[in-house]
Amino acid sequence: MATHATPLADWLVILPVLLCLGGGALLLVLRRAPAWQPWLCLAILFGVLAVDGLLLARILASGPVSMTMGRWLPPFGISFTADAMGVLFATMSALVAVAVVLSLLGEAPESAVRDGVYPLLLLLMAGVGGAFLTGDLFNLYVWFEVMLIASFGLVVLAGNPLQLDAAVKYGIVNLVATTLFLMALGLLYGALGTLNMADIIGAAGKADRLVLTVIAGLFALAFAIKAAVFPVNAWLPASYHTPPAPISALLGGVLTKVGVYALLRVLALLPTERAMLSPAITAVAIATMLLGPLSAIAETNLRRAVGFLLIGGIGIAITGAATAGAVPGAIVYVGQSILVMAALYLVAGLIERATGTTDTREMGGLYAASSRLSIMFFALVLAIAGVPPFLGFWPKLLLLQGLIGAGDWLLALSLLLSSLLTLIAGARLWSFVFWHPRHAPLLRPPSYAPAILLVGTVLLLGVAPNLLIGIGMVAAHDLADPARYVVAVGLAP
Amino acid sequence: MEAALSLLVGLFVASAIYLILSRALVRVLLGIVLLGNGVNLLIFVAGRLTRGAPPIVPKGANVPAGAFANPLPQALILTAIVIGFALFAFLAVLAFRAYQAMDADDTDHMRLAEPEAQPQPPLEY
Q: Which ipTM value was assigned to this complex?
């Protein structure tokens, strides 16, 4: 047993999860007071955002923070360990959640509030926060499942046939993926006898390399399904466009990134095995980053096309699991992609509301009618394509530096080609939605404010990217050299 | 004993994958139950099978005396069973609702979210 209590300041690590879980329970209790729900939800999410910010400042100042539950010394107790990568993603997700609640405020029908959209959203954020902050693999599995069940609820909330169809595919594929994750976890426990991430780093050297490579491959497959990497990505365009746009924004911005995070994190624990798997990951990364935008070009449903652009971005993000040199760029890319993709889904939702259709062939004429929508969509297209000085440019620059530095020309060229295809896909969408002539009158979309909040943040971070790049560098350093992480948990490095 | 149980795990997983590849939703659900059970058994075997006393620490001591069974896999499996059961219950209700809404339990006939005859996008700008 631990000899002394956890210092009060270290409780910060678990606060984002506690606030969301407690808030979700509170909102369930208050289900008969629908008028209170959005405001309480918003207050809790602002609290989470503040805690994430404090945690980030503390990690940048003094390294990873850890807390082990139940006064059991690590590696026996369950550790929550926050390092720069996890907290960066958690902060971005909390920001997206705030924007999503703001847009639900004007848009969610009474039935959705009665059926519990706000408690589900908070429980989803509890799962996301737990996944980003935990330092224990089995605990990561539990948070994956918390996230999964809450996202099921959010997808089927309106309960129309379209959403039920989407939820069946989304649910079954993702449940199989988490079961594969559990399988890999059981095998890893059998091989190493530990599931604490910091302890795995130390124990991995003594085990059979071949066994660990097979286990790492199984982990990679499970997380690739969660992240929608190419051969196993078909569930994403079949489901993410069906719920209301704010919910799509939350799922599209945050959930796939949790899969990418888990892939980067778990493979970083097993660096030798990551090197063995590198050719396979490189191949699927290239296929994903090229096929995503190509499919977006061939798609006529606006939010499905956005989903394909999201898949292209996932291909770029997982280069961080293929080559060590690409890790800083990949971390910054995932961090900014959470914001950009959520913003794109929100703006796509506004466009669908303004034109009254989801089919890009029937849209058009928005350029003259709504300058704000056209500026926002255009800025986001440039941001995901990576045109300077928009946000997507900086991580791609870091990635190119890292890839060319490591002599990985194939990945570097594919990254450039993928950016070009993304720009073409985005420009085509923009010309259909905004430039084509239109005869039917436009409808009035709900409030622009949440989308403006996210797009504004994207633009601001694009012209002042130093903070984001700095955090990415610290995160990549801690991932490559985990000594600080292991010491923070309380184990011998 | 471990070898026999490992083979059993393989059998569970193989039949689960066979069922999940089916187009009928009910079979897919059965496959998911089998897969969950196979994985639970796998964790149990991975924790090594020992015939020992329950891992209870006697009064005044810090560790249990003599050989004792590994308690961790049992805790992991218990958690996994609870989670798996909850998700399966949800999916079973979902499949039933989908059957009511679309009059289909065959995934080939569930094409609302991904229409089969996708229209061509315009070829010009």
A: 0.94
